[in-house]
Amino acid sequence: MKSDPDYIIPANTRIGHVHLKVADLQRSLDFYCGLLGFELMQMYGNDAAFISAGKYHHHIGLNVWYSKNAPPASKKAPGLFHTAIVYPERKDLAAIFARLKEAGYPLTGAADHGVSEALYLDDPDENGVELYWDRPREHWPQKEDGSLEMYSARLDVESLLRELR
Fold it and tell me: In this structure, is the dihedral angle defined by the CA atoms of residues 152, 158, 160 and 161, taken in order, positive or negative?
């Protein structure tokens, strides 16, 4: 049987989870659960943990199977650029931004992409993390021909924080 050369992945397909190699499991749990608010669903012995939002079996796996006490991977090496975590509403992004500010956790960037607003940071192993919310599709910027026109502009953080008032 020959595959369809015009195949397109189904529209409702989604990324199920990300599984990260980390150097220190507890340090990663402190970041992802303690700071970002994920819930620990299961420990797998002493070397792996599965965490989630909303009681899903897991959105993120963390393990030290091959990486215990290892230094971060080089930024120039092939591999994961970042894990992107989508918040349901703008006020949810504002809440985590306020939490990060209160904790003094450093951002590596912040941007308005037209389709979304995003905060960028590194986890304790220097894996990139993007925290964002998507604008409704009807507000996504388009070119004259109707195609998508994403961009990177300065995020109005004052406007974002006003969501909490």
Answer: positive
* 48 contacts: CB under 8 Å, gap ≥ 6: 25, 61, 62, 63, 64, 65
Q: How confident is the model at residue 66 (pLDDT cuts 50, 70, 90)?
A: very high
Q: Which residues, at least 6 apart from 141, have a Cβ–Cβ distance to it below 8 Å?
A: 114, 115, 148, 149, 150, 151
Domain extent listing, the chain:
15-69, 81-165
pLDDT higher at 15 or 133: 133
Distances from the Cα of 87 to the Cαs of 39, 65, 90, in angstroms?
15, 30, 7
CATH fold of the domain at 15-69: 2,3-Dihydroxybiphenyl 1,2-Dioxygenase; domain 1 (3.10.180)
Strand partners, 103: none
Are the folds of 15-69 and 81-165 the same? Answer: yes
Phi, psi of 154 (to 5 degrees): -65, 135
- Contact between 108 and 122 under an 8 Å Cβ cutoff? The reply is yes
- CATH architecture of the domain with range 81-165: Roll (3.10)
pLDDT tens-place string over residues 93-104 = 999 999 999 999
Contact indicator for 24, 69 with CB cutoff of 8 Å: yes
